């Protein structure tokens, strides 16, 4: 079926004021203002809608939806925050992860997100098949996903932060990485599932595991992801433990490569940013988490000037505390204007980070833009709420006036959100079931 999404109020694409044509899950035609496609089988009237490429979330921790606003972790910076929550996360079960994943994916999709990358690194006993659970939930919902097979093998007794109950040994980790890659890593155009290997951080993983993971990723053709340079505490840990700063450590273990994207990247100096840019490394900017944990401000414009790709992430739902990509776009604008000034960072910049930049971080060239041949992943927003009344520029209004919920979402040419409601999901039931399990985690605090 050739569907003409006709005459949008505004669209984030050149030469498409008359809309776009979608066929077989791809964008096949851009329609100029006043034009009509040569042929079509159906029409969706988008005259009330602002049309964006589907937003792409480059960094998240779905399981953390179970510990939002947790009393043990409120008003703490990263290291004490982690120490408070690790023992609680040790109680993560397959059922809890399944509901956490379902809720996070649904919440993201309702905010206009069509592709999500989740960093699952907590593996208490009984949760060995965490990535299988996440793959099942993403496919059932129709969401594109990069499954990050995370890992931790440096516990408290070894000088790390996490308790023994949530870490695994290196052999177990690498064996499961190979299993997950073989089962889920689809490198074809339009893939719904891909895999990245994602040791958690320098303070929870040994150098040997970091190096071994890089070798495996190169051999299997997948990407690498980790937290890096998020806080000054991390810098101090690297100096004390490894005798170097985080970027030096990254180079030492074979991670200065164009198949790597890093979460946060706040405390790089000028020389380090240039080294990252020369290597083709990307950075997932996570403004909400950085503000909530008071970690610092990512130097986004300097990173881009150095050749580093910048994408956007909501980060964990316990350090945000939500999973809303459009809200993350607005937060990125406000935080970066505070650093660089009102004219230096525009709504076009932050929307680009959340789409094309994020796609590049994930190694995807088939999503993130509205163009002929790209996957038909779209987020459509209306300006019907009171907050938008009086807005002159519809595209800018989404960011400046605070859009937070898409009216329609399309993934691979299929509507997955209609009239603001996710297709096939009972939101009230999901809220009840997830809330019941989350209550147990709150009681454990």
From TrEMBL:
> Which organism encodes this protein?
Phyllobacterium salinisoli
Q: Name one GO molecular function term.
A: metal ion binding
Query: Which SUPFAM superfamilies does the record associate with it?
Result: Composite domain of metallo-dependent hydrolases (SSF51338), Metallo-dependent hydrolases (SSF51556)
Which parts of the sequence belong to the Amidohydrolase-related domain? Answer: 50-415
Per UniProt, which keywords does this protein have?
Hydrolase, Metal-binding, Zinc
Protein name from the UniProt record: 8-oxoguanine deaminase
Indicate the family of this protein: Belongs to the metallo-dependent hydrolases superfamily. ATZ/TRZ family.
Specify the superkingdom. Bacteria
- Record carries keyword DNA repair: no
UniProt xrefs under InterPro entries:
Amidohydro-rel, Metal-dep_hydrolase_composite, Metal_Hydrolase, MTA/SAH_deaminase
Instruction: Please give the CDD domains that the UniProt record associates with this protein.
Output: ATZ_TRZ_like (cd01298)
């Amino acid at each position: 079926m050739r569907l003409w999404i006709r005459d949008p109020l505004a669209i984030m694409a050149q030469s498409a004021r008359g809309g776009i044509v979608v066929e077989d899950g791809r964008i096949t035609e851009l329609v100029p203002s006043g034009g009509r496609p040569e042929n079509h089988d159906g029409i969706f009237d988008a005259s009330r809608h602002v049309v964006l490429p589907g937003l792409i979330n480059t960094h998240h921790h779905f399981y953390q939806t179970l510990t939002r606003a947790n009393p043990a972790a409120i008003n703490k910076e990263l290291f004490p925050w982690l120490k408070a929550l690790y023992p609680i996360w040790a109680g993560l079960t397959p059922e809890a992860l399944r509901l956490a994943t379902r809720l996070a994916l649904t919440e993201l999709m309702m905010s206009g997100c069509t592709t999500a990358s989740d960093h699952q690194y907590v593996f208490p006993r009984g949760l060995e098949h965490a990535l299988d659970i996440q793959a099942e939930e993403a496919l059932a919902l129709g969401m594109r996903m990069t499954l990050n097979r995370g890992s931790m093998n440096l516990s408290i007794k070894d000088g790390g932060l996490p308790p023994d109950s949530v870490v695994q040994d290196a052999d177990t980790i690498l064996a499961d990485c190979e299993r997950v890659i073989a089962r889920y890593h689809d490198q074809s155009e339009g893939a719904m599932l891909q895999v990245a290997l994602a040791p958690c951080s320098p303070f929870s993983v040994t150098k040997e595991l970091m190096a071994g993971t890089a070798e495996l990723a190169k051999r299997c053709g997948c990407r690498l992801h980790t937290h890096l340079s998020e806080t000054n505490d991390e810098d101090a840990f690297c100096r004390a433990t490894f005798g170097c700063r985080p970027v030096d450590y990254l180079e030492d273990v074979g991670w200065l490569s164009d198949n790597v994207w890093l979460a946060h990247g706040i405390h790089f100096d000028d020389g380090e940013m240039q080294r990252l840019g020369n290597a083709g490394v990307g950075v997932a900017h996570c403004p909400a988490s950085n503000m909530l944990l008071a970690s610092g401000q990512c130097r986004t414009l300097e990173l881009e000037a150095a050749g580093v790709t910048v994408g956007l992430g909501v980060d964990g739902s316990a350090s945000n505390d939500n999973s809303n990509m459009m809200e993350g776009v607005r937060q990125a604008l406000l935080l970066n204007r505070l650093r660089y000034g009102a004219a230096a960072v525009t709504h076009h910049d932050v929307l680009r980070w959340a789409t094309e930049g994020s796609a590049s971080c994930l190694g995807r060239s088939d999503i993130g833009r509205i163009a002929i041949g790209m996957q038909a992943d779209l987020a459509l927003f209306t300006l019907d709420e009171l907050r938008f009344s009086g807005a002159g520029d519809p595209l800018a209004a989404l960011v400046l006036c605070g859009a937070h919920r898409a009216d329609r979402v399309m993934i691979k040419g299929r509507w997955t959100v209609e009239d603001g409601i996710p297709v096939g999901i009972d939101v009230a039931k999901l809220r009840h079931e997830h809330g019941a399990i989350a209550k147990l985690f709150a009681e454990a605090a």
